[in-house]
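Standup notes
- DV: blocked on the single-chain target, sequence here:
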Amino acid sequence: MFTGSYEHVVDNKGRLIIPSKFREELGEKFIITFGLDGCLYIYPMEKWESFLEQLYNLPSGKKSRELQRYFLAAAVESEIDKQGRTLIPAMLRERANIDKNIVIVGMMGKIELWDKELWDKNNAEFGEIDEIAEQMAEFNLNFM
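- DV (later): unblocked, structure below
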């Protein structure tokens, strides 16, 4: 399970060092694609296959096709080189406004890649987290 956050820099060729804590769980090959809220997602192949199945099983309709296109058209298979880096394609970096400074966030079954400035802005808006947590209590989320 991916947890924690790490600040890194994308080099001038678009390569990013993946934290060693995440490398083994990612495996040899993984998928990078568009995410939600302005970030990118990295899925280990097993989690990607599970996500594909969920997308495949969506009810027929325009909204389902749009969601499928959003994730699938951008999906790129990637791997980690001997220096622990992976290439983030230019199209994906542009979509997430990733230029240089990045935050890598473990989100259970996937990893999120954030432009540091956008990450900081979103974190500043966490002021309502207590209210959100109370709303999630209806789903039996318990903060023991």
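- Follow-up: The chain has one domain: 5-139.
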